[in-house]
């Protein structure tokens, strides 16, 4: 069976190189089931609306440096532009507490049900 997708993904992360690297690892780990294309990253909340308009991604992840309130704001902005977008907030502090491998492991668990929904 060929992988589902491609799914166009935008991340919201103040460390764009880390976002690109970690999403690359997740995309590779899930490549037998999904084609995930990391199309852009927003370093600031103010970039979410223009970048979602530009790319119309299927999926948006907010990184673990954002508080619950900020993640909700990011998701509300993305959904206002693209009502069908799939959203996921990585739990606040996960990167700091458990490191990049924990983020990859976490997303490999959470992404399949999200993309299949």
Keywords:
4-stranded parallel beta sheet; 50% helix; 4 strands; globular; 5 helices; 117 residues; Rossmann fold
Topology:
Blueprint lengths: L3 E9 L3 H14 L4 E9 L5 H8 L3 E4 L5 H14 L4 E4 L4 H5 L1 H17 L1
Parallel strand pairs: 1-2, 1-3, 3-4
Helix pairs in contact: 1-5, 2-3
Compact summary:
This protein has helices at 16-29, 48-55, 68-81, 94-98, 100-116, and strands spanning 4-12, 34-42, 59-62, 86-89. With 117 residues, it is of the alpha/beta class. α1 crosses α5 and α2 packs parallel to α3.
Shape: globular
Strand content: 15-25%
Radius of gyration: 13 Å
Number of strands: 4
Q: Which class in CATH terms?
A: Alpha Beta
Average pLDDT number? 95
Count of helical stretches:
5
Oligomer: single chain
Q: Name the poorly predicted regions.
A: none
Largest sheet descriptor: 4 strands, parallel
Helix content: 40-55%
CATH topology: Rossmann fold
- The H/E string reads EHEHEHEHH
Supply the number of structural domains. 1
């Amino acid at each position: 069976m060929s992988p589902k997708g491609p799914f166009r993904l935008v991340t919201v992360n103040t460390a764009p190189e880390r976002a690109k690297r970690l999403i690359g690892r997740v995309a590779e780990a899930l490549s037998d089931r999904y084609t995930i294309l990391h199309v852009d990253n927003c370093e600031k909340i103010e970039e979410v609306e223009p970048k979602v308009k530009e790319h119309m991604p299927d999926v948006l992840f907010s990184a673990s440096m954002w508080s619950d309130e900020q993640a909700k704001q990011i998701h509300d902005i993305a959904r206002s532009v693209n009502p069908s977008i799939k959203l996921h907030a990585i739990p606040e502090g996960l990167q700091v507490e458990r490191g990049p491998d924990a983020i990859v492991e976490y997303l490999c668990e959470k992404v399949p049900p999200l993309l299949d929904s």
